[in-house]
Design goal:
Chain lengths: 247, 291
């Protein structure tokens, strides 16, 4: 079943130029999808336009058959869309626990909130240990876990994660990707944006290639990984070849 | 005068400055609006309390309970009717400064026209009393004003730390985008915060009515001091605001005691100048990120 449909969306910031130009893509329910593409291709802008942080200038975003293009973030959240932004979006002077509480801000029922926090702490035991520490004192990897954990509090149907590996050491990034891959087991649909195309595609089952604000290619993640053109353009095959010849 | 005595009076005054400046800090922290009309609204609050006292014999400390909620709703009306039109504009901060400056000018003109430029001060019985502790004393009016300020600041603290809306307010101050992402309606938080900020201006005004003499143009002196306090503390930091308000009030009292009252306003601007030389982000501020 189709969960999310982006139709011809054009978007940009303030009075600035269009960053996304008439992009369309479809996300099927239960899939872990990864959007790859070079810097400035509009990957983050697309996620912001979906969750309502940015209003599309043209086009529509359709979620479960309903037009959500003009909803504000707190409204898309209530529909089941959670977003983890590139800068993690934590509250630096709040404790880990307070950040998790904020993750359940839209829940009216406090006892349910406590249960959800316990459930998330089982997925990320580290968050329990660091409960009373301020978010700004956590390391990069811990902050990313907190950001993911906070998004999981609401048990979203669609989780959007922007550049989870940004600024992380490869080993820690690998941990994070493993966690993201495991979200599939909760029946969650994941839409991932990743600069590190190889790692991102490796943990996804569907891939999209975005370039210059347009969607160019899509398909099963392993097909894209194997695609010659993509390899040359985004997976650093040329760079790798050059390195080989030099050594 | 004894130095300890001066310090005590300075601290008491600092409590009132904290109340005045915290309203500005809240509004700046949540909305990135430097509310230059804060001082003008304080003076308006002072006039309301003053006329309440002279015309209807209502004690300024009692009219505080009327003026404060009145200003809360006034703030909400002002915010709703002006700011949503310009939020999201790339020139938001510049526009808000002009809007606030304009409001201050309009209010100053209106007060000058209707209340005249006569120097005013309400004089309930307690303004001439003082309470003696051995060799030390504190004017009763000042003591009441400081207690009211502490209570109101305590209420604000409790609101920010224990209520759901307070959590949302702190979250918005720390990371506005993230607050939206977790489902905070930041427009609503902004409206309420603007109301609270204005309510604090109203409460401060009621205290000004009997603590100081005032007239319509007086708000420029107040806003100059208050802006230097919040910049010194680090824009958007409550702790910074409290510390700079208390310490500068004490220093200004000492300066006034040693060199004469003429020099005390200079304390604020000179300390601002010195601190900004070494710490451009203020005492407790974070460097503003480019957005």
């Amino acid at each position: 079943m189709t969960l999310l449909q982006v139709e011809n969306v054009t978007a940009g910031y303030g009075f600035g130029p269009d960053i996304l130009i008439g992009i369309s893509l479809t996300v099927e329910e239960g899939r872990t999808c990864c959007i790859i593409g070079p810097n400035g291709a509009g990957k983050s802008t697309l996620l912001k336009a979906i969750c309502g942080l940015l209003r599309p200038r043209q086009g529509r975003v359709i979620y479960k058959g309903e037009d959500i293009s003009h909803l504000r973030p707190y409204q898309t959240l209530a529909k089941g869309i959670c977003f983890v932004p590139q800068e993690r979006g934590l509250f630096p002077d709040m404790t880990v626990r307070e950040n998790l509480v904020m993750g359940g801000y839209i829940l009216e029922d406090r006892s349910r909130l406590d249960q959800e926090i316990d459930r998330v702490c089982e997925i990320f035991p580290l968050l329990k240990e660091r409960e009373s520490q301020r978010a700004k004192t956590l390391s990069g990897g811990e902050q990313q876990m907190l950001a993911l954990g906070r998004a999981l509090i609401l048990n979203p149907e669609l989780l959007m994660v922007d550049e989870p590996s940004l600024g992380l050491a490869p080993r820690i990034a690998a941990d994070i990707f493993e966690k993201i891959r495991s979200f599939k087991d909760f029946g969650m649909t994941v839409l991932l944006v990743e600069q590190n195309a190889r790692k991102g595609l490796a943990c996804a089952d569907w891939g999209y290639v975005l370039d210059l604000g347009k969607e160019r290619i899509e398909g099963p993640a392993d097909t894209i990984l194997a695609d010659e053109r993509i390899q040359e353009l985004y997976l650093g095959k040329l760079a790798a070849k050059r390195k080989e010849t030099r050594s | 005068m004894h130095t300890l005595q001066t310090v005590i009076l300075g601290l008491a005054l600092g409590g009132v400055y904290s109340l005045m400046a915290t309203g500005l800090t809240l509004i700046f922290g949540v909305m990135r609006i430097v509310n230059l009309s804060h001082g003008a609204f304080m003076i308006l609050g002072a006039y309301l309390a003053y006329f309440g006292f002279t015309l209807y014999n209502i004690d300024p400390l009692l009219s505080l309970f009327i003026v404060t909620p009145l200003f809360f709703f006034l703030g909400i009306i002002i915010y709703k009717s002006i700011f949503p039109r310009i939020t999201g504009s790339p020139r938001f901060m510049e526009m808000t400064i002009l809007v606030a400056f304009g409001m201050a000018l309009i209010l100053e003109g209106a007060m000058g026209k209707y209340f005249t430029g006569v120097y005013r001060s309400a004089n309930p019985s307690y303004v001439t009393d003082s309470i003696q502790f051995g060799e030390l004393f504190i004017p009763t009016g000042q003591l009441y004003a400081t207690i009211v300020s502490i209570v109101l600041l305590g209420l604000l603290w409790a609101f920010l730390n224990f209520s759901r809306l307070g959590y949302a307010t702190r979250a918005t101050m720390q990371n506005r985008d993230a607050a939206q992402i977790v489902g905070v309606n930041v427009e609503r938080v902004s409206t309420i915060s603007y109301g609270i900020g204005m309510a604090m201006a109203g409460a401060s005004g009621s205290l000004i009515s009997f603590l100081f003499t005032f007239f319509p143009n007086k708000h420029w002196q107040w806003i100059a001091i208050l802006v230097s306090l919040i910049v010194l503390g680090g824009l958007g930091s409550f702790v910074g605001t409290l510390i700079s308000a208390l310490s500068l009030a004490v220093i200004a009292s000492l300066v006034s005691n040693w060199f004469g009252p003429v020099w005390s306003p200079l304390t604020f601007f000179l300390s601002l100048f010195i601190v900004l030389l070494f710490r451009p982000q203020g005492l407790f501020g974070k460097k503003l990120e480019e957005e």
